[in-house]
Design a protein that fits this description.
By secondary structure, this protein is an alpha+beta fold. It is built from 31 helices and 31 strands. α1 runs antiparallel to α2, α2 packs antiparallel against α5 and α8 packs antiparallel against α9.
Length: 983
């Protein structure tokens, strides 16, 4: 029965409408991408990548359709005229043919269209492989086995593999579909008493199988080069078995496959299936015996009984390649005769001021303090992991600072409508910084850049002019529409007292895509499925849409060939807040280099607990360079890429593909260079590598007795997560104080310290210099875990007194530093007390712990703690125990008990008063200080009575030589307002 005319017309119309809508949304995505790249001035990247993808898509689609479709068409056209009669009757294929024949053309066209889409998309997705191949730059060094330039393995071999895999897929699909076509149309029968295949079918399938085996011969030939990535041996790279068994086997199999291919082709002229059958059996048997069994026998009976001797030359190759690939070949391991007894270095300590200015504020902990004292309104926030940078103090001396920017979380609760979300609450505001070695009189960071608008000596010294944050770490994936009418500003700039309670502004930056035209508004309305973009009267000719506002996202889009560091950091560059992001060229194709997961090498406490520090992908790499330093302007989103390592061949390759997008290093301003630091993820990868590859002797490497581990973070208790490296000013032996990135190592077996590593993180001649101090084997130096255990054991009673009520004790970052001929551990201790007014608890720095060998000090500031460790005669553990017993016997128990009760009562009263002062809204810092003084007096009485004093909640730790710091910058920053005030 035929359908009525109208329903028959509706179907194609509906299909056409669906196709038009789909094409519209597809085009809108491409068009808005073009507008975004045009706005950031990287259209070359957009056009080059898009053109490459389109060309590869067409090549893949045409080749796959041509090969597969051509073979199917050939099979159909060479079908027997009377197919069933050739074999003496019909078969089950006749039923399938009868069912499919009426729809043959439709099935053929739709099937090939889907195949074209799949093949084209697959090849287009490998655009980066083609670009690297087409623009390959030489390394100038060769591999140890084949003597080919490294670029062959990095750029050429992956493309050859891509082509071979594509051809294999095409030939296999052709053979399968051609066989099905021959079967359906009588070319051959699976069950036939006579001839099983027509001549055309036999020739056709023989040629296809011959081509497949010929491709296999070529693949076997190139397989030999993949041996440099083998993981068969003790380390990655070609092993003894690979070179002496697998390599000859691959060459032999290539010859056998070539012979088998010729036998398949010979089957064209010789009826029957003998030659193809023999050739296929020969190839399969050879692959099993020569390619599998023979290498296994060599490994089992030659290598394993004498593995060290057999593998040593190949381990040496791996060591050399790995150290070069991860850029640690110049890492200097120095013996360090560290002393563990403070009494032996007291004179050295008296004249050593290298640690007196060390950073004490922990950027992971004081984020909550910044949040509660500098958030100003509830719709602002700070990153949960702050950053460390350097800024000059009043005397021009560079000091480690804890820096952050105040970002926007969105409209207040109850005001989250489209206009507020996208047109009013558009940006954060402010740069907040505090010296890492100071606190004010209340124990809070001594901010030298704070508030809204930004005030403070640091803001003045750096000439900060623009502190609006339209682009930041916590902006998320949402868009904002900024600009609009400058005579009627509607964007919230910052809150203020009086009047309307807020200062408004209008965005005037060059970043963003103009959305004044109807066309642009239409396509962005489609992109975000939001009709308000098209209809809102607040969107006018001056409006710009800002999206992709995370610094990492912006850089990843304009430079998709780079791997980005997990943690961008803000800096004041030439008067503007600018995000600095380290970028890497990575690969997993460096011959003989050890391949590891990037995520596993960079994972530590910071990546596990922070929302803003990204986890790297699980992808394995065996080559890494910090080739690019990138910046993103926090106001207008301008992205600039600088070639930090212009000699990197991978960077040269991509620069050849995208000329002009990466600026030379010489274009970096002095202000920017002053804030460049050694990248954290690269350092993590290098410390992971050097935990084993500090050993350069193959025999010692094989034994593994001197392998190290990165210690677990001792401040995290029993959690099995690595300690992060720390940025701080460090003085290495024989060197001047330098801003450095530091870490420690412990032996694979044992808790003692094995080594200390630091890298110069200041731009200049020494930048990137890795120095490793190896601890003496005859003097055990406590490791980080031992130092932490000693702190907790020593002050367990005091901590129990602290951890009552709403308070809790938190340990800061455990810093390790060379000092006075040994290693000193420094750890800040915070008390976290719930504040009033609905505020979240936040930590206040109150004590500093110091450990050198077995001696421990605790005080309100670093200088006093160091004096406790180095400023008195040291006694042995037995002497201390004996002296303690004698003192205990001499004490009058009743007098001690009375003194203890009085002191504890006074301490509890002072503690309660301090807590009450903190919980008031706003906190009463004057009363808090008075209560703290009374608490200190009570604790001193406790000490006099013979009990260790608990740590108090108002420290004044300082890294300065002065015994107690004077308030610096802001004495008491304004606390966060309540939600009612913030709305």
């Amino acid at each position: 029965m035929r359908l009525p005319r109208r329903p028959r017309l509706l179907l194609p119309v509906a299909i056409a409408l669906v196709a038009i809508v789909a094409l519209f949304f597809l085009f809108s995505g491409i068009y808005t991408d073009y507008l975004w790249f045009s706005a950031v001035d990287y259209t070359r990247v957009f056009s080059s990548v898009l053109l490459t993808q389109v060309v590869l898509f067409l090549i893949g689609a045409v080749l796959m359709v041509g090969i597969v479709g051509g073979n199917m068409l050939l099979a159909y056209r060479t079908r027997p005229t009377f197919g069933p009669a050739v074999f003496g009757g019909g078969s089950g294929a006749d039923r399938y043919r009868a069912a499919l024949d009426p729809h043959r053309k439709l099935i053929f066209i739709v099937g090939l269209a889907l195949l074209a889409l799949f093949a084209g998309s697959s090849l287009a997705g490998q655009w980066h492989t083609w670009i690297e191949f087409a623009n390959a730059q030489p390394f100038g060094t060769t591999d140890a086995e084949f003597k080919r330039d490294i670029s062959f393995f990095m750029f050429e071999l992956p493309f050859i593999r891509l082509v071979l895999n594509f051809l294999f897929t095409a030939v296999i699909l052709s053979a399968i579909l051609a066989a099905i076509t021959h079967y359906l149309y009588g070319g051959f029968r699976l069950q036939s008493p006579g001839v099983h295949a027509s001549k055309a079918a036999r020739i056709h399938l023989s040629v296809l199988l011959g081509v497949f085996v010929l491709l296999k011969a070529i693949a076997y030939w190139y397989d030999q080069f993949d041996l440099v990535f083998s993981d068969r041996g003790f380390v990655h790279g070609a092993s003894y078995t690979d070179i002496n068994a697998v390599l000859p086997a691959k060459n032999i199999l290539a010859i056998i496959a070539l012979i088998c291919a010729l036998m398949f082709f010979a089957g064209i002229f010789r009826p029957g299936g003998m030659l193809p059958g023999v050739s296929f059996g020969l190839l399969a048997l050879s692959a099993v015996l020569i390619g599998g069994v023979y290498p296994m026998l060599v490994e089992q009976f030659q290598v394993r009984p004498n593995q060290q001797a057999k593998e040593s030359p190949y381990i040496a190759r791996n060591i050399e390649a790995t150290r070069d690939a991860y850029n640690v070949d110049d890492a200097k391991v120095e013996p360090y005769s560290a002393v563990a007894d403070p009494s032996q270095v007291r004179e050295n300590a008296a004249g050593d001021t290298s640690v007196t200015g060390v950073r004490l504020l922990d950027p992971a902990l004081v984020s909550a303090t910044y949040e509660q004292t500098q958030r100003i309104r509830g719709f602002y926030n700070f990153a949960d992991q702050l950053d460390v940078d350097r800024y000059p103090d009043a005397n021009g001396k560079l000091t480690d600072h804890i820096v952050a920017v105040r970002e926007l979380t969105g409209p207040p609760e109850g005001q989250n409508n489209w206009i507020n979300r996208h047109l009013v609450y558009t940006h954060g505001y402010g740069f907040v910084a505090a010296p890492g070695n100071q606190v004010d009189s209340s124990g809070l960071p001594a901010y030298d850049a704070k508030d809204m608008p930004v005030t403070g000596p640091l803001a003045e010294r750096t000439g900060l002019k623009e502190s609006r944050i339209y682009f930041g770490e916590t902006t998320g994936a949402d868009y904002v529409i900024a600009g609009g009418n400058p005579e009627r500003p509607q964007e919230l700039d910052y809150p203020e007292t009086g009047g309307t309670g807020q200062k408004n502004t209008t965005y005037t930056g060059k970043g963003g895509v103009p959305v004044g035209s109807f066309i642009n508004r239409l396509f962005y309305a489609a992109k975000y499925s939001e009709v308000n973009i098209l209809l809102s009267g607040d969107v006018n000719d001056n409006s710009k849409i800002l999206y992709e506002r995370s610094p990492r996202d912006r850089i990843a889009k304009v430079a998709p060939f780079l791997t980005l560091d997990s943690d961008p950091y803000p800096a004041i560059i030439d008067g503007r807040v600018t995000w600095i992001v380290d970028a890497y060229t990575t690969s997993n194709s460096y011959p003989y280099s050890q391949s590891e997961s990037l995520q596993e090498m960079t994972r530590d406490t910071a990546t596990d607990r922070s929302r803003v520090i990204a986890q790297q992908p699980q992808d394995k790499i065996n080559y890494m360079r910090n080739s690019v330093k990138a910046t993103v302007d926090a106001y207008d989103g301008t992205v600039t890429l600088y070639a930090w390592d212009p000699d990197d061949p991978v960077l040269k390759t991509w620069s050849s593909a995208f000329p002009g997008i990466i600026q030379p290093k010489t274009e970096m301003s002095e202000s920017l260079l002053a804030h460049v630091r050694y990248p954290e993820d690269l350092f993590k990868v290098q410390r992971y590598t050097l935990s084993r590859y500090h050993i350069t002797d193959a025999a010692a490497f094989y034994s593994g007795q001197d392998f190290w581990n990165v210690p677990n973070d001792p401040s995290q208790g029993e959690q099995n997560v690595k300690q992060p490296p720390y940025y701080l000013t460090t003085t290495m032996p024989g060197d001047q104080p330098k801003f450095s990135l530091t870490t420690t190592f412990v032996p694979r077996q044992g808790p003692n310290l094995a080594a200390f590593m630091a890298v110069d993180s200041t731009a200049g001649d020494g930048y990137g210099k890795l120095r490793i101090l190896r601890m003496p084997s005859n003097t055990p130096i406590p490791g980080p875990g031992q130092a932490q255990n000693a702190f907790q054991s020593r002050f367990a009673g005091e901590l129990n007194l602290l951890g009552v009520g709403a308070s809790s004790v938190r340990y800061g970052n455990l810093l390790t530093l060379p000092y006075a001929g040994g290693l000193v551990y420094i750890e800040p201790v915070y008390i976290q007390v719930a504040a009033g007014g609905g505020q979240e608890p936040y930590p206040i720095l109150q004590r500093v712990l110091v450990s050198f060998g077995s001696e421990i000090g605790v005080a309100r500031n670093l200088d006093e703690a160091l004096a406790q460790v180095f400023g008195k005669e040291q006694t042995t553990g037995d002497q201390q125990q004996q002296q303690s017993q004698e003192n205990q016997q001499q004490e009058n128990q009743q007098q001690q008990q009375s003194a203890l009760q009085t002191a504890i009562g006074d301490a509890q009263k002072a503690y309660d008063d301090a807590t009450k002062a903190l919980q008031s809204d706003p906190p009463n810092w004057e009363e808090f200080g008075k209560a703290q003084q009374r608490l200190d007096d009570a604790l001193e009485k406790l000490r006099t009575a013979g009990v260790q004093a608990p740590v108090t909640p108002t420290p004044s730790p300082t890294g300065s030589p002065s015994p107690s710091p004077s308030p610096t910058g802001s004495a008491t920053p304004a606390p966060t307002e309540s939600p009612e005030q913030g709305s």
